[in-house]
Amino acid sequence: MTKPRLILDQDDVLADTHGKLADIVLREFDTQLTSAELHQDSFYETLSQADQKRLYKILHEPGFFSDIPLIPNAQEAVLELSKKYEIFVATAAMEFPNSFREKYDWLHRHFGFISWSNIVFCGDKSILNGDYLIDDMPRNLKTFKGKGLLFNAPHNLKETEFERVMNWEEILKRLL
Ligand SMILES: [Mg+2]
């Protein structure tokens, strides 16, 4: 029997990219914002234009994607889900071409059980074909033909169009 295909986004689904950026803002930027405030909305809303530009530059620095912390329980949950689903990781890496190697090595280090053949570096995710897609970006779920699940993130809190999942525990309950 073929397993249903489950496609996972990398940033802010497997990797806590927003969390790493928020830590950089707190540590290196001259800001009055608290960690809680930086997790209540997108950086477009919480930061000045100058700080947004500075953060965007940091995203392009070599090494940025190498040591992003894991989203809690992602490893265990994906391993569990891989028994029932064919797992793919699809990341819009084309936005940051320098990130390919770092993103690949990060996946290999934390999700070594996912074969290279199941990793997709793409631009526009409407090319994806699967049964489920878990992503924090509503625009990626909009064009997906299967069932989309919106992974809760500071930049999507106001989104109501898609079924929201708060964390990996909830995903296990929903999909197993
Ligand atoms: Mg993402």
Automatic annotation (TrEMBL):
GO molecular function: 5'-nucleotidase activity
Organism: Runella defluvii
GO biological process, one term: pyrimidine deoxyribonucleotide catabolic process
Any Pfam family matching the protein: NT5C
Record's protein name: 5'(3')-deoxyribonucleotidase
Family: Belongs to the 5'(3')-deoxyribonucleotidase family.
Membrane-spanning ranges: none
Active-site residues, as the UniProt record annotates them: D9 (nucleophile), D11 (proton donor)
Lineage, opening ranks: Bacteria, Pseudomonadati, Bacteroidota, Cytophagia, Cytophagales
InterPro entries, per the entry: 5'(3')-deoxyribonucleotidase, HAD-like_sf, HAD_sf
